[in-house]
Amino acid sequence: MRVLFIEKNLRNEKLGIMYLSASLKQSGHHADLIQIDKEDIDKKIRTYQPNFIAFSITSGEHVYALELAREIKEKYNIPNIFGGPHCTFFPEIAEHETTDYVVQGQGEQAILDVVEGRVEKGLHKSDMACTLDSFPFPDREIFYQYPEFRDNPIKNVITSRSCPYRCAYCYNHSQIELTKIDQETKQWFNRRSVSNVINEINAIKLDYKLEKIIFIDDSFIQSKKWLDE
Fold first, then answer.
1. Is the distance from CB of 41 to CB of 60 less than 8 angstroms?
2. Angle, vertex CA 135, rays to CA 183 and CA 175, nearest 5
3. Cα–Cα distance measured from residue 177 to residue 88, given in angstroms and rounded to the nearest whole number
4. How many Å apart are CA 59 and CA 86, to the nearest integer?
5. CA atoms of 102 and 8, how far apart (whole Å)
6. How far apart are CA 96 and CA 149, in angstroms?
7. What pLDDT does 60 receive?
């Protein structure tokens, strides 16, 4: 299967799409990315012939995404997959007449369930619990087709997901409520192993220009023992 991720105009690396692409490619599928403010989407669809159109959206982005998905469906009849933070916190987007598949939660397994036909159209709630070391490293090639990302000596890496705290000003307390994990043990916070993170950084250094890493975790310094190691 071929999945085409759609963005308007990328300003930074989006690791979410990279992880989804890696999951697809590891299972034998194909993934590509287009920036519609810079590239011709009709030409891309005709040449790439995607089986699915995918949007990973934050709130606000959903407005253009829904309209574009409607236009693509009317013109090409290609089913779409919606995911990202907006879909997690506002799953009612699945009731919109334009959406086909909507993923609430983490998408690595969910997107495979969709493209491999294991779920029906509508809302698909994925398990928020996971072992992060089991995921393939982000597929950076899907972004590094663009020189501004490939040649940037500063690369993004994430070593954990969620956060062990419930600060009132942050979204994490709402995300915790969405999980079915034992809140007393705080198992909604997932951390990669030190060796896994180092292996990813070494892989980046081997293939791309690299001078600095930005760790984009919500809580990078949560464990002093892990950080020291």
1. no
2. 30
3. 11
4. 5
5. 20
6. 34
7. 93
For position 165, what pLDDT does the model report? 81
Global pTM reads: 0.92
pLDDT score for 129: 64
Report the amino acid identity of residue 181.
I
Token pair listed for 7: 């963005």
202, 219, 200: which is closest to 22 by C-alpha? 200
Task: Give the pLDDT means over successive 10-residue stretches in the chain (229 positions).
Answer: 96 95 98 97 98 96 96 97 94 96 93 97 82 94 96 96 83 71 57 97 96 94 93
3-state SS, residue 38: coil
Q: Which amino acid belongs to residue 100?
A: D
In which residue are the tokens 């299967």 written? 1
Q: According to the model, what pLDDT value does residue 128 have?
A: 63
- Asked if 52 contacts 81 with a C-beta cutoff of 8 angstroms, the reply is yes
Provide the H-helix boundaries in the chain.
Answer: 15-26, 41-48, 61-76, 85-89, 108-115, 141-144, 147-150, 172-178, 194-207, 224-228
Amino acid at 144: Y
**Alpha-carbon distances, residue 25 vs 22, 46, 63, 150, 158 (angstroms):** 5, 21, 29, 20, 20
Chain-centroid distance, C-alpha 201 = 19
Amino acid at residue number 9 = N
* Two tokens, residue 62: 């959903």
- Residue 141 has which token pair? 């090639």
Res 118: pLDDT = 96
Q: What is the DSSP string of 124-177?
A: EE--S---GGGSPPP-THHHHTSHHHHT-SEEEE--EES-S---TTSSHHHHHH
Residues composing the chain = 229
